[in-house]
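Narrative of accomplishments. A recurring question from our advisory board has been how the design workflow behaves on a single, concrete structure rather than in aggregate. To address it, we present the structure tokens for one chain from the evaluation set, followed by the sequence designed for it. No filtering or post-editing was applied between the two.
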């Protein structure tokens, strides 16, 4: 699963959101590292909907603009959970390796002197 897809799904985990709400929530969740453009967002939403991970929740008009809300499906929640578990497992493995590295002396390679 791409990082963008994961963040969109995670942003929908607690409540339905419209496109701009997703853009701002993804930016906040990623500490502004991931900035979704409209074209990227809507392509991702179509892809996620076609896989049954999200679905439209309803539309509303605000200031003359139509806003479509999306919600996470049960399959989407399961996908977020599985991806979260996968990332957690990988992060633990990386931390263990870094801890072992910190305890080992640094090898000296090719010292001339």
């Amino acid at each position: 699963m791409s990082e963008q897809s994961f963040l969109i799904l995670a942003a929908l985990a607690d409540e339905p959101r419209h496109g701009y709400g997703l853009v701002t929530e993804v930016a906040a969740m990623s500490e502004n590292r991931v900035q979704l453009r409209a074209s990227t967002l809507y392509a991702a939403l179509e892809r996620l909907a076609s896989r049954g991970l999200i679905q439209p929740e309803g539309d509303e008009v605000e200031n003359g603009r139509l806003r479509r809300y999306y919600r996470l499906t049960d399959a989407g929640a399961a996908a977020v959970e599985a991806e979260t578990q996968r990332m957690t497992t990988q992060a633990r493995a990386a931390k263990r390796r870094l801890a072992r590295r910190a305890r080992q002396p640094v090898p000296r390679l090719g010292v001339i002197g």
